[in-house]
TrEMBL record:
Cofactor field: a divalent metal cation
PANTHER family hit by this protein: 4-HYDROXY-4-METHYL-2-OXOGLUTARATE ALDOLASE 3-RELATED
Protein name: Putative 4-hydroxy-4-methyl-2-oxoglutarate aldolase
Superkingdom of source: Bacteria
Source organism per UniProt: Roseomonas populi
Length: 221
């Protein structure tokens, strides 16, 4: 078996779809969808960011970052770099230099099922990263193998190259491209209704218990 497995680059999501996805909150979709949500411990390093894009997948073993450095040369504008660490939770595979390179290639974010490093440099680069916290021990160029543009597993979710990825303060959601538009439109409509409800609650026009039906259930009324 070859040490390195590289698939063909996936089709990029249409810009109009990405624009819709960027308006959809993961927590809104979480009101009805039960799968595709990455483990909550894969969390944002930079606050208050919401991005969406095309999954560009990489998997790398243990403390070897060779395939990731290679993959950075193939990233495209609008990609979300999705990195499967194959169970390693000790070695940081993305730091300041890789964040700068990914941003220069046009990637909009990285999602790593493991730790990263160089928080200050990532902040300075302005490159959004979702990961399992920080670690000072890093990967090296050890030529052990890995994969690029292959199916990966991130926080309990199978991610296919070309999947739609939404990342925000609440977490990361992966959607098959064929389901992404419908979910985004439903989320946007739900958020608009929620904003109106919040306005009415703030103005004292309604009470949440009555509006939601909770009070009627408790009182039997």
């Amino acid at each position: 078996m070859a040490r390195y497995v590289t698939g063909a680059p996936p089709p990029s999501l249409e810009p109009a779809l990405v624009a819709l996805l960027e308006k959809a909150e993961t927590a809104t979709i979480g009101h009805w969808r039960l799968w595709g949500f990455v483990d909550r411990h894969v969390a944002p390093l930079l606050p208050r960011r919401r991005v969406a894009g095309t999954a560009f997948t990489v998997m790398l073993p243990a403390n070897d970052g060779t395939i990731l450095a290679h993959a950075l040369d193939h990233l495209r504008p609008g990609d979300v770099l999705v990195v499967d660490r194959l169970g390693d939770d000790r070695h940081a595979c993305i730091g300041g230099g890789l964040a700068v390179a990914a941003r220069a290639a046009g990637a909009v974010a990285a999602v790593v099922d493991g730790p990263c490093t160089d928080l200050e440099e990532i902040e300075e680069a302005g490159f959004p990263v979702w990961c399992r916290g920080l670690a000072p021990v890093t990967t090296q160029m050890l030529d052990m193998g890995g994969g690029m543009n292959v199916p990966v597993s991130i926080g309990g979710v199978v991610v296919m190259p070309g999947d739609a990825v939404i990342c925000d303060s609440s977490g990361v959601l992966v959607l098959p491209p064929g389901e992404a538009e419908a979910e985004a439109r439903r989320a946007i409509e739900t958020q608009a209704r929620g904003a109106e409800t919040a306005r009415r609650l703030a103005a004292g026009e309604v009470r949440l218990g009555a509006l939601s039906g909770a009070t009627a259930r408790v009182t039997g009324g």
